[in-house]
Predict the 3D structure of the following.
Amino acid sequence: MRSYSNTYIFIFSSIMVIIVAALLSVAAMTLQPFQKKNVEINKKQNILTSINIESTAKDAEELYEKYIVENFAVNANGEKQEGVDAFKIDMKKELAKPLNERNLPIFISSLEDTKQYIIPVYGKGLWGPIWGYVALQEDLSTIFGANFSHKGETPGLGSEIDTKDFQSQFFGKEIFNEQGEFVSVSILKSGTADPNSKYEVDGISGGTITSVGVDAMLKDCLSSYETYIKNIKN
Amino acid sequence: MSAEKEPLFSSKNLKLLTEPLNDSNPITVQVLGICSALAVTVKVKPAFVLAIAVVVVMAVSNVVISLLRKTVPPRIRIIVQLVVIASMVILVDQVLKAFLFDVSKQLSVFVGLIITNCIIMGRLEAFALNNKPWQSFLDGLGNAAGYGVILIIVAFFRELLGSGTVWGYKVIPESVYDFGYENNGLMILPPMALIVVGAIIWVQRAKNKKLVESN
């Protein structure tokens, strides 16, 4: 076996790293517009799913235009913010800010002559971020539909939050109790939720940390809209 | 292929391509790369895309390493191999994200995990470092195809019996369900992938006596 000097090894690795870096950055830059577009379409699909509209990558934009009539952002005091594109708001960045500096996006859809308020939620699962959209009926308490996605929860366990089975449990649940206090919807240990309760759903067995994550995500994100919702209601 | 290219496909070279499909199949004979065979074989489509991704990564990395084989210092050869594989995997992942977003979402981390697929590094180390580019290309193609074929066979049975579909299309008619047939939920769970792989190994050994150990 030939032996190589340290200098050779050093030069070899440097050149290799530079070539690889150049190659990957060129690829990343050329493909970025396509990827952004896909993410955007995916977001629209998720929003549509939260109001129970099934869409494909092809018709998502059209359906989105049709059903989502308005989007805007409010602050924690429920005042509308001017000049903010609600669709482009990154929930992760907003949640990192203190509550009174956040821009809170709301999407309003119109379906069967009623209005739905769609609220984005964002939180932490077991392995990475989880996020979703919760659509409230016109009374701003009853859940019309919900959609959750995740970056990389355990397949077959935590990842079940993105299935219809899990999401359909939320239909008809309420986030304000009869006294008008914010209670959110709690995700309990699988099999322990009272089917008659309007404020509880079953978690996923084997996906406890993800379930707890969804629970915390709903409480954190929905509670920031409390003032806005109360302002409209009164 | 045409006659003048014959030496390219000499029987020795062809063997590089065909042997991993059966006699030295990476999954069923060498028992490598099992993890992804368990994880992404619930549906045929993602399994197919992963198989293609592995074919691309493996064929290209094998050729690149083979071209570099005389210049790579042995002391850092593993690092060089990893860099080549990793950059290929990132490229494939980026392309999938741009053009096959749905599948890329389903495959999620498993595209990235191609890096750790022992078949690829195994072939780079055992073959590409000592052989010419064309042979390495065939070897990479053959091994990745051998891996992919098993992946798709496993996925076919798991999707058919577990979800009643193939490639997302319903193949078991509704009337069969009316007679009380039900999808086998167990097929969707990881253990069944192992059992299906086991069944394939069994069938393969029953047909191919060469593989049966003599002791």
Q: What stands out?
A: Chain A has one domain: 45-233.
